[in-house]
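From the pipeline queue, job 12 of 40. The input is one protein chain; the requested action is below.

Action: predict structure.
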Amino acid sequence: MKLQDDKSAPALPLLCPLTTAPFSTFPSDSSQYSASLFAVFQHILTIPRLPNRLPLTSLTQVANQLPWASLGTVPVSLLIQVTDLESKAHLLANMVAFIPPRLEVLPPAALSTYLEASASILDSIPPDGLEPPSKTSAVTAWNIKEDSDDSDVEPNVQKPAAPPPPRLKLDKPTLKRLQTLVSLKHIGPLMARTANNTALRVQLFRFFLSLSSAWPAQRDQVLSAIVFSPSGPALIKEIWRTWVRRATLGKSSRTGIELLRGMK
């Protein structure tokens, strides 16, 4: 059956209560509850332009009655167990439509699942896969150029050009909704909600890296949102103090600074 975009379809007001009924029927710790949540992610949240297809009353019902706070009870590998790249992109777009407005009330386990699931989906999308077909990014991936003096590389030998990565065939409403991922209104609350939680910070950093890798054209936007977020300066200090200064790189930097001071 072909799903129509017409919000006046008479079946929609009947189907939405059926979608959310298991979560008011089964105990939250039951296998039926988890299986129902898994089914929603596999068969409902992968529907293209889902928020655009639902009338306002049905959309409100689905948004308010799906158990977003229980995301942490289902393994991420099951929630995103779809193989088609377009389906994964639609799943991500629908997650972005429903979950960010509820970030402040999500328990840590659910927030961790949201970040991990988003990053896992982004990891499966080729660079520029989320760009409209008419646009191409000059930056493609986080590649480190090989040393030109490497003796193993033959001079004046050109490698054949790699084929361009596949572009996802996504409609304009989906592409517009995915822009939320790189916006300050999305990144700012994520940074605030993960503060003072090392495990969530790690998931957040992975999300940033996955987002920047899958969407090279939006790297500057992501970095700008991080820096200009109210939590931006604190996050930069935290990265330095918690991960860089304690690492070998940070220790080497301090050693070099101390040697320079001793030479004065």
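Job complete. DSSP finds 14 helices and no strands in the chain.
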